[in-house]
């Protein structure tokens, strides 16, 4: 039987607590930053239920949000209905501007500066 999105979030959060991870990022890309990816790389779709080609999901121990662009607002709202996800815009409205500067500040408001984060795709390079 397929698990619901909210059950997947609960399972992920249990693992995050076990591993000491406070947030997990699910981008839409593969290691080559392709827009259209093979099924193996569709972690964002699996964890959120949103199947558009562009978007990023972020899950913390207490909340979940998905960012996408205007092409997908209607379909994302429909696909995220009845889940814990908050739909965010990649282009912020005035109402959202105080709250986010993309997911970095959304995340910063929810976690301390020393947070351990996970990411669903390998081969990412980060600067210190």
Write up this protein.
- The model is unreliable at 94-103 and 123-128 (pLDDT under 50).
- This protein has helices spanning 5-19, 43-48, 73-80, 94-97, 103-110, and strands at 23-26, 56-60, 64-68, 85-89, 117-119.
- With 128 residues, the chain is an alpha/beta fold.
- Strands 4-3-2-1-5 form a 5-stranded mixed beta sheet, sandwiched between helices.
- The chain is globular.
- It is 32% helix and 17% strand.
- The chain has a single domain (5-119), classed as Creatinase/prolidase N-terminal domain (Creatine Amidinohydrolase, Chain A, domain 1).
Topology order in helix (H) and strand (E) letters: HEHEEHEHHE
CATH topology: Creatine Amidinohydrolase, Chain A, domain 1
Spans of 5+ residues with little confidence (pLDDT < 50)? Answer: 94-103, 123-128
- Overall, the morphology is globular
Percentage of β-strand residues: 15-25%
Lateral arrangement of strands in the main beta sheet: 4-3-2-1-5
Q: What is the residue-averaged pLDDT? A: 77
Per CATH, the class reads Alpha Beta
Range of helix content? 25-40%
CATH architecture: 3-Layer(aba) Sandwich
Q: CATH superfamily assignment?
A: Creatinase/prolidase N-terminal domain
Number of domains: 1
Termini separation (Å)? 42 Å
Oligomer: single chain
By secondary-structure content and strand pairing, the structural class works out as alpha/beta
